[in-house]
Structure formats: C-alpha cells, structure tokens
Amino acid sequence: MTNASGSARETLRKQEKDVSTMTEIKLSIRGVRKTFHTARGDVEALAATDLNVAEGEFVTIVGPSGCGKSTLLMIASGLEDPTNGDIYVDGSRADKPGPDRSVVFQQFALFPNMTVEQNIGFGLKVRGVQKTDRVAPVREQIANMKLGGFEKAYPSELSGGMQQRVAIARALVLEPPLLFMDEPFGALDAQTRTRMQDEMAKLRSRISSTILFVTHSVEEAVYLGDRIIVMSARPGRIAHEYRVDRNSPWKSLAIESAMSDPEFNSLREQIWQHLHAN
C-alpha cells in the first residue's frame, strides 16, 4: 500500500510538472476513491486516483468494462460523491455540480415535449437568461451542430445522431469551462458514430472548454485526445498515459483516413497491448 501511495504521489507530481509547461491546471483529481456498498458486500470500483487536467486540454479515458472510468467522470463532474479524495476546479475545492461543469451522457436525455431550440436553450432559461437573449446563442449552436431546419422538431422526430448533437449543443450553449462526456457516441450506429467523431474533432478547434471524455473505443480516444489515460481493471487506477501532438498530420484528417496513418496505428497498438495486459 505504501508503494502504491508513493507511486500515486509521484504520478501527480509528474502530471503537475507536465501540465504546468502548457498552461494552468483547470481540474485536479486528488486521491479520489469510490467503494459501493452492495448486498453482497463492498465493491471497490475505483482505487485512489490522482489526475491533473490543463486548461483547454482534451483528455480521453479508456479502460476495460467496469474499471471505474465513468465513476471517475461522474465524481469529477460533481454528480457522484467520492468515498475518499477531493476535486478541485481552478484551485478551489468543488463538491457539488455547478454552472462551470456540463455533462453529456451516452443516452441523449432530451426533454421529449420540447423542440430542438427549446432543449438547447433550457440551461440558459434555468440560469435566468431572458428569452430574447437566448435566441442568438441557441441559433449559433444550431448552426454549429448542423441542425438548421429542425428548430421546431421534437426529439422523437430526430435520428439518434441528431439527438446527440442537440444534447451536445445544450451543453455547449452554456459555454462551460469544463465539459464531461461519458460515452457520448456509444449508443449510435457505426456510421453515425464515425460522423460524430469527425464533427467532434472539428468542434474541438472552435471551443475553449477543457474536456474529459470517457470511451470504450481506443480509436476514438487516440483520434480526439490531447492526452489518453489508460485505466486498469477494477478497482480502476491510472495504469498508463500518452500524449498526442496536436500537430500530428493525421489530426487534420477524418477518422477513417487517420486510422491508416502509421503513427496513429502505432499508438493504438500500444494502448491495446496495455488493455489486454489488464
């Protein structure tokens, strides 16, 4: 246990050093652990975990099923309480959800009785933004997400990919400093998922949010992430991490073309080997 704790502290110091060379630390996860109490006894889902995320960084998290990656994201977003540990945003402890943290889930979670524009503007309405002042930012997100012509449509009238674009637009219209995405494309068919991955890569260049993105797809993690966190099997812990150069040639390609790049495939293979080792 002592060696593990020492290793965790060393990892956090290394992250602080690496992140500090880029910009300010936006999100700091310190010693976060989660144990669930069940009828069959306690289940440790997440071992003590330390992670720093720089402002403007896009961090993807991959790992085997049940390794605690979604639990880690939920704790970081404030939607789940840790058993131990703390979350800091901009250096201040952050216990509960707030306007500085938005979440996009795998399930679209749209209001079925609201139109596209009403769903997108809902968060602004809750914030007390007047209806007339909501028009411009909602229209901007509709344009960004290629939802023009569907402003008055209801979720039941949209495809799965369009519903998820509405969900993402609803998060982005709030201009969140921190955006948490939990398998946002996991419920989509393969073709739609590929299109959404390409759109997310393009969107990344237009927004300034710091993003923590959980996925089962190694290809998705490599394609989208500035840094890739690989978690071990339960109880989850950070086993490895990789940095990706934003200027890599394949970063400007569609994902299907990027996957033909030798550098992309080399990194993907390394991550797969770590996952299989778990």
Q: Which structural class matches the secondary elements?
A: alpha/beta
Return the string of H and E elements: HEEEHEEEHHHEHEHEEHH
Q: How far is the first residue's CA from the last residue's CA?
A: 19 Å
Uncertain regions spanning at least 5 consecutive residues: 1-5, 17-22
Mean pLDDT: 89
Order of the strands making up the biggest sheet: 6-7-8-3-9-10
Strand content: 15-25%
Biggest sheet overview: 6 strands, mixed
Count of extended strands: 10
Task: Please count the helical segments.
Answer: 9
Specify the overall morphology.
globular
Radius of gyration, rounded? 19 Å
- Helix content class: 25-40%
Describe this structure in words.
Helices cover 39% and strands 24% of the residues. The longest helix has 19 residues, at 2-20. It is an alpha/beta fold and 278 residues long. The chain contains nine helices and ten strands. The chain is globular and about 50 Å long. The chain has helices spanning 2-20, 69-77, 116-126, 131-144, 160-172, 190-204, 218-224, 255-258, 262-277; strands at 25-38, 41-54, 58-62, 84-89, 92-93, 101-104, 178-182, 210-214, 227-231, 238-243. Helix 3 crosses helix 4 and helix 4 crosses helix 5. It has a six-stranded mixed beta sheet with strand order 6-7-8-3-9-10, sandwiched between helices. Strands 2-1-4-5 form a four-stranded antiparallel beta sheet.
